[in-house]
């Protein structure tokens, strides 16, 4: 069950990143984040009301609130790093986010077996290579490296927080709703400040209403991924769930290959293969 839900998480996050990347080519990144998360929050609100999720309100929601604060900061840092530096450096470094939940799992007493340790090492190596690491070229700005590390720490922290935000399915819906409301408020404040400083909130041609379904898909895929990761981490070792969930860069690369006909570099293809081998080791360990 842990492997299934964790791999579902990586699949959903990979598609959300792919869709978000395409949308940010047409609209400011902050606008894409706020609108997609807002649509997801609206859907979650309906689900919470329909399932009576408010009855699950309790102290654990503070974890969801914290995840909602950290998430936008991590995402904005990631987008800014991508704008400043080469993706071949930023993308592999961002996968260091897996270190946070794995570290938490080890501190809580989890001790993966030898086969799982090998699977973790192989899978993480594969994910880094699938990002297409840039081994040559001009030096990367320190600011780019710092922003990437901030985003990695933020994503990993969200992993850890959302796991603690609920213990039941209806409670999970409520936790995700609170997380998304907080993300929308935080992102909306950042967008308002950005507009006050002269940055555009919409593309030159105005808002393209045709992109609304795509925005909804990105937001809901991201929400669903948070939910499946929480289930995976609660039903098995966090060390295994976090590594399998971190395979999303492989999904993004394959989606770009399938939908945009982008050619995978040899190092990316090798990374995808290693990630698959690592997944099999983790699943059978």
Description:
The protein is built from twelve helices and no strands. The chain is mainly α. Helix 1 runs antiparallel to helix 9. The longest helix has 28 residues. It starts with a helix and ends with a helix. The mean pLDDT is 81.
Low-confidence stretches: none
**H and E string:** HHHHHHHHHHHH
Distance between the termini: 13 Å
Helicity level:
over 70%
Number of helices: 12
- Which structural class matches the secondary elements? mainly alpha
Taking all Cα atoms into account, the compactness measure Rg is: 18 Å
DSSP summary, beta strand count: 0
Mean pLDDT: 81
Percentage of residues in DSSP E strands: under 5%
Describe the sheet with the most strands: none
Q: Choose one word for the global shape.
A: globular
Short account of what is shown:
It contains twelve helices and no strands. With 285 residues, it is mainly α.
Compile the SSE list and pairings.
Elements: H1 2-23, H2 29-51, H3 61-84, H4 87-94, H5 99-107, H6 114-130, H7 142-164, H8 169-196, H9 212-234, H10 238-245, H11 248-260, H12 266-284
Helix pairs in contact: 1-9, 1-10, 1-11, 2-8, 2-9, 3-7, 3-8, 4-7, 5-7, 5-10, 6-10, 6-12, 7-9, 8-9, 9-10
Features:
single chain, 285 residues, mainly alpha
């Amino acid at each position: 069950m842990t492997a299934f839900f964790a791999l579902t998480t990586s699949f959903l996050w990979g598609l959300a990143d792919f869709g978000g990347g395409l949308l940010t080519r047409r609209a400011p990144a902050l606008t894409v984040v706020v609108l997609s998360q807002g649509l997801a929050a609206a859907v979650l609100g309906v689900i919470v009301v329909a399932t009576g999720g408010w009855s699950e309100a309790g102290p654990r929601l503070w974890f969801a609130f914290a995840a909602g604060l950290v998430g936008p900061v991590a995402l904005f840092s990631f987008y800014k790093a991508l704008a400043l530096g080469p993706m071949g450096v930023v993308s592999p470094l961002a996968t260091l986010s897996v270190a946070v939940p794995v570290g938490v799992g080890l501190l809580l007493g989890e001790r993966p077996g030898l086969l799982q340790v090998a699977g973790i090492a192989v899978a993480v190596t594969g994910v880094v290579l699938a990002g297409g690491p840039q081994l040559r070229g001009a030096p990367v700005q320190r600011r780019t490296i710092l922003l990437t590390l901030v985003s990695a720490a933020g994503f990993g922290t969200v992993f850890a927080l959302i796991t603690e935000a609920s213990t039941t399915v209806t409670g999970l819906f409520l936790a995700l709703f609170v997380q998304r409301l907080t993300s929308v408020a935080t992102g909306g404040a950042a967008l308002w400040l950005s507009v006050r400083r002269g940055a555009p909130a919409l593309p030159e041609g105005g808002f393209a209403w045709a992109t609304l379904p795509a925005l909804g898909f990105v937001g809901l895929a991201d929400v669903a991924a948070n939910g499946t990761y929480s289930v995976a981490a609660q039903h098995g070792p966090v060390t295994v769930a976090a590594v399998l969930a971190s395979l999303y860069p492989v999904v993004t690369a394959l989606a770009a290959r399938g939908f945009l006909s982008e050619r995978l570099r040899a190092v990316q293809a090798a990374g995808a293969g290693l990630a698959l081998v690592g997944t099999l080791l983790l699943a059978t360990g």
